[in-house]
């Protein structure tokens, strides 16, 4: 049985985040999730927070650490999409996605690494995307933010790697969630045809990789991009 850790998953109320939180709970860890609304899986502590609101994050992290102890593992998963072609994308649509999916990750990671430094132990897992390096028409904002997480994880590794703190990006491809359910059958079939595995992943398949990256078994992996995409982004 691995040593129980205090884990924070942002955006843990649905989809991949919910599955990640559930996997950590199943492994016996103390798990908290942040959500703007809704709640995480049974056995987790749900706290209301918005990653674009610094004060709400301060309050949420203080509550988590008071109830569960200093945060040792953070999974930065909260994200939004505002997909549209470059020529139609407004400044606001670009900035909103960057503010949540990139600056929001910075806000969370900056706050939780303080306790990791004191403990000389930490696991930072950033949820990226295959489109961060592969690119995707209609997702200039989203792919830019996800690509930037690679530079963030590698810079964190250079800053904190000597303190027994790792930082990695897990980059999912197409996953069966509410977001992909909205694609429609024709588009879903088109995307599936591009995936060597021939199918979308389950959220649980991503969650198991995240839990492994955050475990003792992965203590010498840092600054890596770990794809969970059925071969879609090979070489990118």
Report the span from N to C terminus.
35 Å
Indicate the overall shape.
globular
CATH topology: Rossmann fold
Q: What is the mean predicted local confidence, pLDDT?
A: 95
* Second-tier CATH architecture: 3-Layer(aba) Sandwich
The ordered string of helix (H) and strand (E) elements is EHEEHEHEHHEHHHE
Task: Name the CATH homologous superfamily.
Answer: NAD(P)-binding Rossmann-like Domain
How many domains make up the coordinates?
Answer: 1
- Main sheet: strands, sense, barrel: 7 strands, parallel
Structural class: alpha/beta
Q: Can you walk me through this structure?
A:
The model has no long low-confidence stretch (mean pLDDT 95). The protein is globular and about 50 Å long. Helix 3 links the parallel strand 4 (73-76) and strand 5. Helix 1 (15-26) packs across helix 8, helix 2 (54-68) runs parallel beside helix 3 (91-119) and helix 3 packs parallel to helix 5. It has helices spanning 15-26, 54-68, 91-119, 131-134, 140-160, 178-181, 185-194, 203-213, and strands at 6-10, 30-35, 45-48, 73-76, 122-127, 165-172, 225-228. It has a seven-stranded parallel beta sheet with strand order 3-2-1-4-5-6-7, sandwiched between helices. It has one domain (6-175, 204-220): 3-Layer(aba) Sandwich (Rossmann fold). By secondary structure, the chain is an alpha/beta fold. Helix content is 45%, strand content 16%. It is built from eight helices and seven strands.
């Amino acid at each position: 049985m691995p040593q129980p850790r205090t884990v924070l998953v942002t955006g843990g109320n649905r989809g991949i985040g919910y599955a990640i939180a559930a996997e950590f709970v199943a492994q016996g860890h103390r798990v908290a999730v942040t959500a703007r609304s809704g709640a995480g899986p049974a056995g987790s502590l749900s706290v209301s927070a918005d990653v674009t609101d610094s004060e709400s994050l301060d309050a949420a992290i203080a509550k988590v650490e008071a109830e569960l102890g200093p945060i040792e593992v953070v999974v930065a998963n909260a994200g939004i999409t505002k997909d549209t072609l470059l020529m139609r994308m407004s400044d606001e649509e670009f900035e909103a996605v960057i503010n949540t999916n990139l600056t929001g990750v910075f806000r969370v990671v900056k706050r939780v690494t303080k306790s990791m430094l004191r403990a000389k132990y930490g696991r930072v897992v950033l949820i990226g995307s295959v489109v961060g390096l592969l690119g995707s028409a209609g997702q200039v904002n989203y792919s830019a933010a996800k690509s930037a997480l690679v530079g963030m994880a590698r810079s964190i590794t250079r800053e904190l790697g000597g303190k027994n703190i790792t930082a990695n990006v897990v980059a999912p491809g197409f996953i069966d969630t509410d977001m992909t359910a909205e694609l429609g059958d024709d588009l879903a079939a088109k995307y599936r045809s591009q995936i060597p595995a021939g199918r979308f992943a389950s959220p649980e398949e991503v969650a198991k990789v995240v839990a492994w990256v955050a475990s003792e078994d992965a203590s010498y992996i840092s600054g890596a991009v770990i794809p969970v995409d059925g071969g879609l982004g090979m070489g990118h």
